[in-house]
Amino acid sequence: MLNIHPSLLPKYPGLHTHRRAIEAGDTEAGCTVHEVTAELDAGPILGQARVPVEPGDSEDTLAARVLVAEHRLYPAVLRRFAEGDRR
């Protein structure tokens, strides 16, 4: 089973990832596709995509940019995974 998570794991597992990135002063955020394991958001990472955190970003504006990256990343990782590529 795979999951897509809206942060660059292992940074910010769980909830409120965009708020946490902004509050930390991060200059980039992104998303991660990983295998699901018993530990929350801790499975092997299969792919990541990065987006900038822009000055003045809110949780919503950052989330919108990350969502676009998720829509590109997830199908690419799923295709590789289905073909047997687990890296």
Task: Describe the protein in words.
The chain has a single domain, classed as Rossmann fold (3-Layer(aba) Sandwich). The chain has a three-stranded antiparallel sheet with strand order 1-2-3, with helices on one face. The chain contains two helices and three strands. It has 87 residues and is an alpha+beta fold. Helices cover 37% and strands 23% of the residues.
Brief rundown of the structure:
The protein has 87 residues and is an alpha+beta fold. Helix content is 37%, strand content 23%. The protein is globular.
Give the helices and strands, then pairings.
Layout lengths: L1 E4 L11 H8 L3 E8 L9 E8 L6 H24 L5
Which architecture does the CATH hierarchy give at level 2?
3-Layer(aba) Sandwich
Number of helices: 2
Residue-averaged pLDDT, rounded? 97
Structural class: alpha+beta
The CATH topology assignment is Rossmann fold
**Portion of residues within helices:** 25-40%
Give the distance, in angstroms, between the N- and C-terminal Cα atoms: 15 Å
Total domain count:
1
Poorly predicted runs are: none
Major beta sheet, specifics?
3 strands, antiparallel
Radius of gyration: 13 Å
Order of helices and strands: EHEEH
User: What's the CATH C level?
Assistant: Alpha Beta
Strand order of the largest sheet: 1-2-3
Oligomer: single chain
Number of strands: 3
